[in-house]
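Handoff note, outgoing to incoming analyst
You'll be picking up this chain. Sequence as last confirmed:
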Amino acid sequence: MGIVQDLFGKSPFGLLAEHSKKVHECVEMVWPLLEALVQEDYPQIHVLQDKTSKLEFEADAIKHSIRKQLPRRYFMPVDRVDIDAFLHCQDKIADNAEDFAVILTIRKTRLHPVLHEKFFSFINQIFQVTGALLTATVQMQSLAESSFGGAEAAEVLKYIEGLGEEEWKADRMARKLSVDIYNLESELDPITIMFYEKMLITLGQIANEAENAGDMLRNMIVK
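Most recent structure output, in case you need it:
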């Protein structure tokens, strides 16, 4: 019985779901961070940055637990390479959320009032992308029990397809917001413009990596 357990072991998908939840917690910190920036509450930004860093560390701990288990699994319904690639994308999502927090601590920058609502709308769209990824990842746990087939697989693939559409919307919003930023050149100094652009690019990477993670989930299902 021990040999059988060693060969098959415990499914990693429960931990993958937990990792995805923790990564999403990192992403959710982006909203209060922007609120603190809008309010020019720079001490609060540092507090939130510390919290984001702690969440990212916790996500890393789960990631390492998953990777530690994988070498002992000889029979799995999906390729280890796909799981590792998925974890890598998830890791980058959390890293970019943490990077956004760190960026806001570097400089006491005032966010132009014209950009307040536009940045919040962009973040809300990013949440649509990462939320779809979280839902798909959580459903993978039950999907593994059905050998990645049937109606359950079709449902997860539907979520992944929707994730791609939401990321496309995020890309469009990012391009529009970039134009809005540079339209303020006559009012702002070049360093502030560059700072806004760095904020925008880092946020956009969260959505990009979420789409990449969704592609990894798709690979696990269709192989």
